[in-house]
Design a protein that fits this description.
The protein is 2% helix and 45% strand. The protein is an all-beta fold. It is globular and about 50 Å long.
């Protein structure tokens, strides 16, 4: 199957392929299999062969020993979505990763809500652009074709944790 590798701006930085037998399995460390990905943020696209089906699971590990799954984008479209639970502060951090899978720029919108349904103003930082911090109950950004936007919310450790939900909408494919 074909592989396309993009950095977080959506620029193609590599291609490749993986050989996999029917009902087969493979596992690998991304930066070992595709060295161009070492110390980079971005996306990797696995192109399903005609008549084929694939499943994927991504796992991210940190030097401290923490790990989490990486969401797989499949059958993306123009509909919005919701994030049932977010937490920020007192040791909790929520990371939002928005990916424009379309061929043109699109607007991405995030709205944050407290458990009572009212807008929830959260501290937001943007690690791709130096981590500048702002506080807002919503976010509107333009994403270039194939680009990724990372938004983190982590309030101070000495503040009470803020919890709620988030809603994502878009004007294109996201």
């Amino acid at each position: 199957m074909g592989v396309v590798i993009r950095d977080d701006t959506g620029g193609q930085i590599g291609t490749g392929s993986l050989a996999l037998q029917g009902s087969g399995h493979t596992s690998f460390v991304l930066s070992t299999q595709f060295p161009v990905t070492a110390n980079k943020r971005g996306t990797i696209e696995f192109d399903t062969p005609p008549g084929g089906q694939i499943s994927a699971l991504g796992i991210r590990f940190t030097p401290a020993g923490a790990f989490t799954t990486i969401s797989v984008l499949a059958n993306v479209g123009v509909s919005g979505g919701s994030i049932a639970r977010i937490a920020s502060g007192n040791g909790w951090k929520t990371t939002f990763v928005l990916v424009n899978t379309g061929t043109g720029a699109t607007q991405a919108h995030l709205k944050f809500f407290a458990d009572d349904g009212n807008p929830l103003s959260l501290p937001l930082s943007f690690p791709q652009s130096g981590g500048n911090v702002t506080s807002a109950a919503s976010l509107d950004r333009t994403l270039a074709a194939q680009a990724t936007l990372i938004v983190e919310s982590q309030g101070p450790d000495f503040n009470p944790v803020q919890v709620g939900s988030a809603q994502r909408t878009t004007d294109g494919i996201l």
